[in-house]
């Protein structure tokens, strides 16, 4: 019986690089899933208080459930695939296509969170709805099209036995580089709209304490920086590095989407958390709270203490009409 051909130094180097790339992808995926699980455990008490105990089902709550749980479920499914030896090209193609579609929907959901914040800042303008609805549809269509044009031509995947798990190809169309561009463009537009409106509010009152505006500005900056950092990483990897590293940032990016998006929604829910316990008519308005300006605020319990960069603060005790209007908009939406 003929012995298998010996590996040339070039093929041996490619094989070692491929195995190293697959291990890097696996480690990043496992780390991203671990972060998601840890974040779920860390914020579950707040989730129960501000989401599940609320009788009212709002668009914010539905967005929260999606951005909180779908990425975790998808991460667990992905881990099952990338740590498994897959011998079928059809299975690889189907897995990558379904992953791409789900990641795209998740990205659009994050943009939806950004849009709702912008919508409230701009007094629920119908013009913004008519403007951004087609933009977000085009964004989703563009990302799915780019993903399909990337995965569709991949007919053969690398199968070298148990030492290589998951689905990898030596060739990935460079059009995949542009997959992150639609999300980055839309998010950048809404970030600068948020920056402009929040700056207008703060400058208008000479930086008087406005917790709602400050919260929207701070969380908007965090989310935009998150999208900017991982989009830059994706563009760099997909345009310059080896094709076998194409999947290395997908699950970490999805985990960051989930963590930051869910935190933003929890911050907004906690800001108007009293609505979970009663109707709008029982909530104290800004005007009634001004009489309690000098009351000592309650000390938060240990499980409710959060770092300064995630702290929402209390609602405004100022009588600024713009802050009051934003407060009413939040109560009506959340």
Short description:
By secondary structure, the chain is mainly α. The chain has helices at 9-52, 59-82, 89-121, 126-151, 181-204, 211-240, 250-271, 286-289, 321-333.
Strand content is under 5%
The level of helicity is 55-70%
The CATH topology comes to: Rhopdopsin 7-helix transmembrane proteins
Radius of gyration: 23 Å
CATH class: Mainly Alpha
Give the overall silhouette.
Answer: elongated
What is the topological layout?
Layout: H1 9-52, H2 59-82, H3 89-121, H4 126-151, H5 181-204, H6 211-240, H7 250-271, H8 286-289, H9 321-333
Helix pairs in contact: 1-2, 1-7, 2-3, 2-7, 3-4, 3-5, 3-7, 4-5, 5-6, 6-7
Pfam families: DUF6533
InterPro entries: DUF6533
Protein name: DUF6533 domain-containing protein
List the defining traits of the structure above:
9 helices; Rhopdopsin 7-helix transmembrane proteins; mainly alpha; 334 residues
Folded structure, characterized:
- The protein has 334 residues and is mainly α.
- It has one domain: Rhopdopsin 7-helix transmembrane proteins (Up-down Bundle).
- Helices cover 66% and strands 0% of the residues.
- It contains nine helices and no strands.
- It has helices at 9-52, 59-82, 89-121, 126-151, 181-204, 211-240, 250-271, 286-289, 321-333.
- The chain is elongated.
- The model is unreliable at 277-319 (pLDDT under 50).
- It holds the Pfam family DUF6533.
- Keywords: Membrane, Transmembrane, Transmembrane helix.
- It comes from Roridomyces roridus.
